[in-house]
Every structure is written in C-alpha cells, then in structure tokens.
Design a protein that fits this description.
The chain contains 14 helices and no strands. The protein is mostly helical. The protein is globular.
Length: 352
C-alpha cells in the first residue's frame, strides 16, 4: 500500500512541479528547452544526487560508500533506457488515440470542430524536425564522452584520481552555462496553464511560483526515498536478492520523477520539454554524483557496474544513430527500453 501511495504522490507532485517550473522559467526568462534541461532536471535529479552525497560522505564502510557509486551508475542507465522508452511508448499511445478520434469523427460525417490540430501522422514526426534532432543529439554527444571517461576511471587506480572529480563538476558548469545562454531560441510562445497555487491569476505572484516549486520538490524527494525503501523491502518478498533489487529496481525508483514528468509533458503535447528533462537529468547524473564518488570513494567497478556502464553507452549510441538523418520516431524511442531488459538478462550470469 505504501508503494502505491508513494507512486501516486510522486505523480501528482510532478504534475504540480512541471506546472510551477514552467512559470519559474518564464520568471527567470530562460528558454523553453532550458526549463527542461536545467530547471526541471535539477529538481528531479535531486533525490538520487542526495542519495549519492549521503552514501559517500557518511558511509562507515566501503560497502556503504559503494551504494553511492551504484546510484551514480544506475541513474544514467535508467534514464537512457526506461525513461526514453516510456516517452516513446506514451507518444505511440497518443498517436493511437488520435487515430481513433479521427476515425470516429470521419465516421460521424466530417472533420468536426473537435479534430486535433495535429494529425496522427504528424505525431509520428514529433521527434523528426532537423532542429529538434540537432538539439537532442547535442545533449547526447555531451553525455557520451563524459560517461566513457567516468566508466574508464572505474577500471583504473592512481594517486590523483580523486582530484579528477572536480573536472566533472566543471563539465556540468560549462553545460549549465551553455543551456542558460541558449536564451529564447524556440519558435513561438506557448500560453502557460494557470499556476495551481493561484488558478484564477492570469500572471501568478513570484512568491507563489517559488513556493509551489519548493513544496512539490519536498514531496517528490520524501516520496521517492520512501518508495525506494518499500522497494528494497518488497524485493526479498518476491524472491529477489538485495543486490538484484539495488541494481535492477532501485534505479527505476530513483528516476521515477523524470519518468513521471515525461508522461505528463507528453500528455500535454510538450514532447520537447519531456526529452529535455531526461537529457538534462542525464547530464547531472553523469557529472555531479560521479564527482562526489571520485572525491570520497575508491571509484572501483565490479562486473555488474561495468555491465551497467556498457549498456548505458550502447543505448546512447543507438539513440545517436537513429537521430542521424532525422530517423528517431516514437517507436524507435520506445525500443530504448529494451536495453534495460538486456541489462537485466546480463545480470543473471554476473550475479550468479
């Protein structure tokens, strides 16, 4: 029951969070894409970043500190596979509903006033404009080399390796500056939904925007932590070992806010924001938790962690290849979730 309650709480709080963060972006005068890659990503990546920070700084044993290393590797894996896959599946579901609605209106004798402005065929091309592909591919090209270095450092040992953690923080600072400097580079202005805290106000007060953002972040944070604890308890009940639960289920749980945000924004027709939130969260996960892990742990990978890194890289290479020539469709995006299934299958011989 707690697991279900936490999932519902995370979804509802994410609905209020995306509503607040869009207004926050308008108040800060940042571009729409930066709302997803910076503002929303920072908020939704907070729970897992705190898990890494607490584990690596307060862990009494090497095993306890390694929980933070696992979180730093599991987050990007879940985002590159499950989060992108869920986004693609939601787009496919939306396309099917549009086709059914179009067929019903045609059968009724015409287009009718309620026919969606975007046809079912257009939904297939929602990811296909050259401008969108370049922007999405640019984030993945930033992520991939940083992640490769992150994995490579887990395979070697040398005296000044901890100092390299500072370079990861610097890499995110450069990415942050690039996104914020991007400015209002989007076509047209979308009318924002009324702020939940002030539903009757055409332009809500800044204090209300900040308050709604902070309150929803607190709910997301505590609900996510409780969700992970329930998952850790349920794993053994259904016959899963603690290690399998930590590597297979916990990453999905900690990335649940990003997944929920993607579902909400796709439902609202804001696919760019959904994808931007995931790619921005991936950049945070590739840098900030990794920097903490390098500074406070040995940052040494076992076979399971190495396998998670290889699958993450394979998923990103797949996405980059499909983006080439504007070939990334909702169906191909949904295929990314299959890499997580491959990861699960590969864990069987490793953990046995």
């Amino acid at each position: 029951m707690l697991l279900i309650i936490c999932a519902v709480a995370i979804y509802l709080s994410c609905e209020w969070f995306v509503n607040a963060v869009e207004w926050l972006g308008e108040r800060l005068n940042v571009g729409k894409m930066a709302v997803g890659t910076i503002l929303a990503a920072f908020g939704t990546a907070l729970p897992e970043s705190v898990v890494t920070l607490v584990a690596v700084t307060t862990g009494a044993t090497a095993e306890a500190k390694n929980i933070g290393v696992g979180a730093a590797m599991g987050g990007p894996l879940a985002l590159a596979t499950v989060a992108y896959g869920v986004t693609g599946a939601m787009l496919l579901l939306k396309r099917r509903k549009e086709r059914e609605r179009t067929a019903a209106l045609v059968a009724a004798g015409g287009r009718g006033p309620d026919l969606p402005a975007q046809s079912a065929g257009d939904t297939e091309q929602a990811l296909g404009t050259a401008k969108d592909m370049r922007r999405l591919a640019k984030d993945q090209k930033w992520f991939l080399p940083i992640f490769i270095v992150k994995v490579a450092l887990g395979l070697v040992a040398f005296a000044f390796k901890p100092v390299l953690g500072l370079l990861f923080f610097a890499a995110y600072a450069v990415y942050f500056w690039r996104e914020i400097r991007g400015g209002q580079d989007e076509d047209g202005e979308e009318e924002l939904e009324p702020l939940k805290f002030q539903p009757k106000a055409a332009s809500p007060a800044t204090w209300a925007v900040i308050a709604q953002t902070l309150v929803t972040l607190m709910v997301i944070f505590f609900a996510s932590q409780l969700f992970v604890k329930q998952l850790d308890a349920i794993g053994p009940m259904i016959g899963l070992s603690a290690s399998v639960t930590a590597l297979l289920l916990s990453p999905i749980a900690t990335e649940l806010p990003e997944i929920m945000n993607a579902v909400i924004w796709v439902r609202q027709g804001k696919t760019k924001l959904a994808l931007a939130n995931i790619s921005g969260a991936m950049m945070i996960q590739a840098t900030v938790p990794s920097g903490l892990g390098l500074l406070f742990t040995r940052w040494h990978f076992d076979a399971a962690l190495l396998w998670s890194g290889l699958i993450t890289m394979a998923a990103i290479v797949y996405l980059l290849l499909t983006m080439r020539g504007d070939k990334l469709t909702p169906a191909r995006l949904a295929v990314a979730a299959g890499f997580y299934v491959l990861f699960a299958l590969g864990l069987i011989p490793i953990l046995s």
